[in-house]
């Protein structure tokens, strides 16, 4: 698969389509099974509160991967992502109800680089708070 977005058609400030990702306790159990991360802060409310958290929280890597989907869906090829990194600044708190939590992600092209690459800056929010900092992806375009 190759990137479907052409470098020449992208400008600094180009906004990627925003996406929202619902997260429920069931989502966290599924992710724990897939990732092997069964830390009780991700499924046991009593334990999470005992260690000082407000409630069960989403896995950091789940939050990071959700944000990355905005980039991979836009570019059309996950392999086009050359580099990706974030700082975890706030947890995504997932209450035990039918709604759970929502991770809302926006992104835009911040820098055009050599070799058909762009840097995309992402903003991930949950419950009105920024949950990822310095969230950036370098992507090789067509």
Automatic annotation (TrEMBL):
The record's GO CC annotations read:
fatty acid synthase complex
Task: Tell me the InterPro entries matching this sequence.
Answer: Fatty_acid_synthase, HotDog_dom_sf, MaoC-like_dom
Please list the coiled coil stretches. Answer: none
User: Could you cite one Gene Ontology molecular function of this protein?
Assistant: fatty acid synthase activity
Q: How far does the signal peptide extend, from start to end residue?
A: none
Q: Name one GO biological process term.
A: fatty acid biosynthetic process
Ranges for the MaoC-like domain?
A: 13-116
SUPFAM superfamilies in the cross-refs:
Thioesterase/thiol ester dehydrase-isomerase
Name the source's superkingdom: Bacteria
Instruction: Describe the family membership recorded for this protein in Swiss-Prot or TrEMBL.
Output: Belongs to the enoyl-CoA hydratase/isomerase family.
Under what name is this protein listed? MaoC like domain-containing protein
What species was this sequence derived from? Actinacidiphila bryophytorum
């Amino acid at each position: 698969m190759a990137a479907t977005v052409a470098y020449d058609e992208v400008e600094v400030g180009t906004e990627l389509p925003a996406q929202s990702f619902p997260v429920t306790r069931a989502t966290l159990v599924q992710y724990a099974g897939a990732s092997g991360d069964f830390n009780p802060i991700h499924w046991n409310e009593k334990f999470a509160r005992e260690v000082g958290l407000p409630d069960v929280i989403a896995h950091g890597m789940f939050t990071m991967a959700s944000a990355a989907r905005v980039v991979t869906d836009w570019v059309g090829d996950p392999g086009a992502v050359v580099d990706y990194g974030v700082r975890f600044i706030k947890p995504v708190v997932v209450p035990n109800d039918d709604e759970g939590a929502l991770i809302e992600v926006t992104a835009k092209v911040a820098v055009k680089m050599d070799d058909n690459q762009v840097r995309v800056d992402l903003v991930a929010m949950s419950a009105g708070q920024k949950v990822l900092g310095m969230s950036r992806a370098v992507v090789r375009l067509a």
